[in-house]
Each structure stands twice: as structure tokens, then as C-alpha cells.
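Input set for joint prediction.
Command: fold jointly, output C-alpha cells.
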Amino acid sequence: MAVNIHRVTEAELEEQKAYEKRVSSVLQKRYENRPLACVVTYGCQQNVADSERIKGMLAEMGYGFTEDRHSAKLVVFNTCAVREHAEDRVFGNVGALKKYKLANPDVIIALCGCMMQQKHIAERIHDSFPFVDLVFGTHVVHRLPQLLYSALTQRRRVFELPDTDGVIAEGLPVVRDGGTKAWLPIMYGCNNFCTYCVVPYVRGRERSREVGDIEKEFRELVESGVKEITLLGQNVNSYGKDLEPRVSFSELLRRLASLDGDFRIRFMTSHPKDCTKELLETMAQCDKVAEHLHLPFQSGNNRILKAMNRGYTREHYLELINYAKELMGDSLSITSDIIVGFPGETYEEFLDTVSLIKEIKATSLFTFIYSPRVGTPAAKLDDPVSYEEKSKRLRELLAVQEEISASQMALHKGKTFKCYVIGKGKLGDNYLAARTDGNLIIEFEGGERLIGTFVDVTVTEPLTYVLKGEIKKQ
Ligand code: 5AD
Ligand code: SF4
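C-alpha cells >
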């Protein structure tokens, strides 16, 4: 099999192991007790997965963890660049640490993630936040031990932001937060260059992990008791196009679904441009693959979709959804991302998005007001519609979706779902809460011994945000 050109070599990873030991001995000399680290994660699940690896390395270096920034000797902000609001929050929170750092000069403040991968942001941090000690980009997460060692031992600030196409670092230690739920990245980066989106600039080109590496991690998760595994990628449908031999995402799914054990597989995000009928058939055929399709359409208007460089039409999107519904019927749950107020979007064009949500009847939607991102083509377009008007349109869309969500919930009455029991419920003392394939919460009366198992539950009463049900007699 050809060697994956993006893969970080064993020698490089070994070098980092040696730095872990060095950091560990610096910490032992400096602190009597185990120092604590606070890792704050913004943005998407890919960042959550990166933070789990950051924590894994920190644990090996001897750090414990805290949620409280002001009792930490190391604060790491893993940042998100996808919208302005996320960036503003980071600047605010970093600024708020200035006093703490000045009073505790031994504390290390580190920033990483997508925001740092943008030149203008790194410059701003450099010039206006002199108390930040360490800044590193998305492509050097695996080199954290070495970078931290420099920050701890040298009297200079460390900025490590190489502009590469990206790497794959296998075998990093992981500290997971999710309990019986886990995130598993199967690929990194994005090649799509949607005109509004900063991700391809900050996360590099698409690169897939080898099937064997994914399968190994997957097995380990299942053996450790994880029940719900979400496969992650910016566009999982283009998984494996860069592998030799090529592997399709459907093939990967089938392989993982055929493994032994009691688990459920989810995946996100799918891109309608690359979503194949084969994938939908795989979802319908494999019991262990959740019948939940997160398929963002962004806009229901073909002119806007073209301006966004999305590579599909409204008609193509509907064809996919209709085929998925044909295959999976009522058990299919659809969710989507939508952007309101793309530059130049007229009210009539926005109404095409509203009419599309009426047609697809999604379980829920993730809706965003367009946020201009430095360096993206859309940020250069004229944008005559005011923010107030865009907010008004968003509210209009949400009101329509609220009705759809409620009527979708009502339709579940009498249906039986296979659910994973996550813990105690809120509807009453004897109630348990479980999650359906489609990510809905269903509560029913049952004994605590069911927690951590899959059960069949029939809906008796759909409430606004949860379903009430009865466990099906086995
Ligand atoms: N403005 C608003 N929303 C955006 N998204 C990505 N870039 C932007 C932007 N510049 C949304 C898209 C994507 C989701 C993760 O974030 O809907 O699917
Ligand atoms: Fe951004 Fe489009 Fe890539 Fe998604 S597919 S990460 S929206 S460029």
C-alpha cells in the first residue's frame, strides 16, 4: 500500500514523546502539586476532537484538568474562525485573562485552532495581546510538547503557524469528554471553497485517514464501552478519494458497521454535491448506522447556490432527500445548515429557502446569518441588505421551522424507536432519557439498569422538545 504522504513520521512522533518527558520534568521542578490545565474549545466537533488530543498530550506531560481558568497554570483556547461572533468571543475571553497572567507570570496562555491560522488574527494577537505566550496552528497540534517546552523554558513568545496543506498525526493520546459518545475524525481539511467559508484556508486540503487506522480506533472505542460514534469530516462524502487504493465513504461505513459490538454510527458533515445514492442505501441497509442525515443545503435558491459555489441545485438536493425518504421512510431524520443573508440575496431568493424547508421537513435546522470572512470571495461582494433586515428574515424562517418541527414531533405518536439510554430523565422520578437515531430525546419509565443499553421505545405523547414513551415489552 502506498505511504500516505500527509502522515507525520514515526520519528517525528518519537521526538515529541521525548519533549513530553522534558516538559514533565520542568513541571515537576517548578510545581509541588500537579499543575492544572484549562482547555476551552470553540466551534465544531473537529475542534472538540483536536482538544481531546491536546488534552491527551497534556495528561502525558503531567497536567491535571480544570474548568476554572483562574486556577490553571496553562490555559489553552482552541478557537473557531467560521463566523465573526466566535472570533469576538475569543478576543473578549483572552483579554479577560490579562490581569490573571500579570498577577501570575508563570501561567502559560496558549491559543490554537482555526482563528490562529489566519494571518491578520495572528498579527493582532502578536501586537495587541503581549501576555499570550504560545500561538500554534491547526497543522502542528502534534508538536505541542515541543512548543510548550519552548514556552516554558525560553524567555520569548512562541508563534508556530506553518502554512502547509496539512498533516495526519496517528496514535496521539486522547482524553475524551463524551462518556459513551465519541467523535472520530476520518478526514481533515476541505477542498470545496464555498465562497463564504474560511475552512479551506485554515484547515488545508482534504486528506483521509487510512481505513486500518480508523478501524483500530473504532474498535478501541467500542471495547472501552462507547456506544455512539460520530465519524467526522468537513465533507465525509469525499472520504478516501486520496487513498491508494481508493475507498468510498459507503465502503468505510459498511466495514465499520460490520464490526462486532453494540453501537451506533453517526457521521457529519455530508455535502449534497458528493452525496451518493449508494451512501443513502448503505444507511438504509446497515442497522448500526443511524438513519440521520445531516445534509446542509445553505440556500434554496439556485442563483445563490451558484454564487456560493456549492456545486448542486435545489432540484438535485430535493432528489437526494426524496430518495432518502423513499428508502428510510418515517424513521429518517434530516437536519441541515442554512445561511441567511448571503451578499446580494433578495427577499424573493430568501423565500426560496423558506419554501425548501417546507418541502424537506427537517427535524431541526442550524441557521446562521452570513458573516463576512477575510480572504473569501464572498467578502468582496456588494452586500446592500442591512443586518437588521437579515435578522428579520432569520426570525421569519425560524417561525416556519418551529411549526414544522412541532408537526414532525406530533407525527411520531405511536412510532417505535430504537434508542440509546443516556441517563435519568426529567419528566419524573422513574423516568429515563434515551436518544433516537435522529438525535431526539425520548423519556420513558424504566429501571436504572437500562442506562447504557439500547432499547425499543414507543411514543405515547409528543411534547414540544422531548417525546414521552413506553418501553416495548421484549
Ligand atoms: N457565515 C455564516 N455561516 C457560515 N457557515 C460557514 N461559513 C459561514 C459564514 N461565513 C455555516 C455553514 C456551514 C456551518 C458549519 O457554518 O452553514 O455549514
Ligand atoms: Fe466550508 Fe463548504 Fe468546506 Fe463546508 S464544504 S467546510 S461550508 S468550504
